[in-house]
């Protein structure tokens, strides 16, 4: 029976959980959301890079991703521009992108990923 | 090649599937949705406790969770109050919470989780 | 350390990723969305059948699914009719279905699945 490793854990959630050979990173949002979707996406992906590092891996190990956009019609292209530049060539995860209202009005994008440990 | 164990299965979905060392529990909603978000959240988490038990584990094995709220602005705090009290100390899963209209108008919250077998 | 197999990969996403004994298929939408939700659902599930085949498995190995509908009140029953007929008896995955605006206005349904390799 393998074990669970939790990183950056509080009473509500862990930012990272390693289990069953996978690394789960929960939905991340911009730390400084006073920005357009490109800047928020860049902040989110920088957070994810850091959490992958904390888990001992990097973005070449991405398996799947979910992206939520507060306004998909307006912001799909901008998010994708930053996303496409961030993904290492040949290492793209599966992805689903849908519109959803997020936990605070100023948040434009939230991204969760699963990676291989 | 490991195998799949399905519990509470009908033609549309299984409530629980065990595979690859993980336990997947699909999106659960309140059985008696005539209630506010706190009571609905409590009902959902009680369902999840039961399904974890059926899978031979408990909530200390939570890996990741997704929460959908029909009205995130109004109900985020109420859901979190019940959620935070339910999560065992030091065992919080990763989480993503977004707003989404659910399958019936009276449903205020839906939660899906992945746990370690 | 097991490895990652990516299929149908471009700079943005892979359609299929195999890792940790699981097969992840990202959010799929209808190739010809000039259709009602039943025809779009059938197109999506045909795509998923093909991707499962590419991964060396089939729909009897489904573990979990997420369904997004652009209009859940109108289209939940129609999607379910096609879904229920597609799922092999006794092999239903866990599932969560919520409403979400999708990446293009004509898209009515998007489905992502995880299966066992």
Short description:
With 117 residues, the first copy, chain A, is α+β, with helices and mostly antiparallel strands. Chain A is built from two helices and six strands; from the N terminus they run βββαβαββ.
Describe the structure.
The structure is a homotrimer of 117-residue chains. Chain A has 117 residues and is of the alpha+beta class. Chain A has one domain: 60s Ribosomal Protein L30, Chain: A (2-Layer Sandwich). In chain A, 28% of the residues lie in helices and 34% in strands. Chain A is built from two helices and six strands; from the N terminus they run βββαβαββ. The first copy, chain A, has helices at 37-54, 72-86, and strands at residues 5-9, 14-19, 22-28, 62-69, 94-99, 109-116. The first copy, chain A, has a six-stranded mixed sheet with strand order 1-2-3-6-4-5, with helices on one face. In chain A, strand 4, helix 2 (72-86) and strand 5 (94-99) form a beta-alpha-beta unit. In chain A, helix 1 crosses helix 2. The mean pLDDT of chain A is 96. Chains in contact: A-B, A-C, B-C. Chain A binds chain B through residues 1-4, 6, 9-17, 19-21, 24-27, 66, 68, 100-103, 105, 110, 112, and chain B through 20-22, 61, 63-65, 72-73, 76, 80, 83-84, 87, 89-100, 114, 116-117.
């Amino acid at each position: 029976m393998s074990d669970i490793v939790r990183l950056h854990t509080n009473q509500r959630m862990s930012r990272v959980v390693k289990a069953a050979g996978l690394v789960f990173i929960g939905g991340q949002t911009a730390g400084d959301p006073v920005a357009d979707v490109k800047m928020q996406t860049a902040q989110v992906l920088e957070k994810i890079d850091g959490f992958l590092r904390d888990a001992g891996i990097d973005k070449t190990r991405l398996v799947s991703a979910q992206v939520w956009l507060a306004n998909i019609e307006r912001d799909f292209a901008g998010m994708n521009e930053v996303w496409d530049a961030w993904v290492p060539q040949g290492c793209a995860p599966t992805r689903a992108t849908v519109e959803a209202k997020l936990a605070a009005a100023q948040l434009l994008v939230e991204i969760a990923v699963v990676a291989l440990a």
